[in-house]
């Protein structure tokens, strides 16, 4: 059985990449600063608003939080919803891959 935060109700697993991989058309991708990310800083399940609001279901509710960039569409909702501003949108060519 998966251990879940008792404060989160109605957890479901979204389907990843329903529309397929992003390919070359996405200009920006999210980058996570784990020194600001609440779950990484606290070392426990907390916040996860990025996971909750991601329309593509590519944010993994793990510690530290991971984003599947192969399927991320670069919409920026995760960055917009992140309370500690741990997620920023960066141009793909500026990412350290």
Short recap of the structure:
By secondary structure, the protein is an alpha+beta fold. The protein has 3 helices and 4 strands.
Overall outline: globular
Total number of helices: 3
CATH fold name of the domain at 44-94: Alpha-Beta Plaits
| Record field, number of beta strands | 4
Radius of gyration: 13 Å
Unreliable stretches (pLDDT < 50, length at least 5) are none
* Mean pLDDT, all residues: 84
Main-sheet strand order equals: 1-4
Approximately what portion of the residues adopt beta-strand conformation?
A: 5-15%
What is the rounded distance between the termini? 34 Å
Q: Helix proportion of residues, in percent?
A: 10-25%
Explain what the structure shows.
- The protein has 97 residues and is an alpha+beta fold.
- The chain has a domain of 51 residues: Alpha-Beta Plaits, CATH 3.30.70.
- Helices cover 15% and strands 14% of the residues.
- The chain is built from three helices and four strands; from the N terminus they run βααββαβ.
- It has a two-stranded antiparallel sheet. It has a two-stranded antiparallel ribbon with strand order 2-3.
- The longest helix has 5 residues.
- The radius of gyration is 13 Å and the shape is globular.
List the main descriptive attributes of the protein structure presented here:
globular; two-stranded antiparallel sheet; alpha+beta; Alpha-Beta Plaits; two-stranded antiparallel ribbon; 97 residues
Layout of helices and strands:
Elements: E1 28-32, H1 38-42, H2 49-53, E2 59-60, E3 66-67, H3 77-81, E4 87-91
Antiparallel strand pairs: 1-4, 2-3
